[in-house]
Design a protein that fits this description.
Elements (H helix, E strand, L loop, with lengths): L8 H4 L23 E2 L6 E2 L2 H8 L4
Antiparallel strand pairs: 1-2
């Protein structure tokens, strides 16, 4: 059998890498971002709610 290894606090806790960028903040309305295109004028929007609001201009 191999000898038991003494685990120390430093083995378990490693500092977070400073090279990685912070995660993006959550959106206020938790919508999935993507490309949404108006079927009447081909304008594009990053959020579905923006497209829905824009569509009222055509009615």
């Amino acid at each position: 059998q191999s000898p038991a290894r003494n685990h120390t606090k430093s083995d378990r806790e490693r500092p977070a890498s400073t090279d990685a960028p912070p995660p993006p903040p959550p959106t206020a309305d938790n919508e999935q971002e993507g490309v949404y295109m108006c079927d009447q004028c081909d304008k594009t929007f990053s959020k579905h709610s923006s497209l829905a609001r824009h569509k009222y201009e055509h009615s």
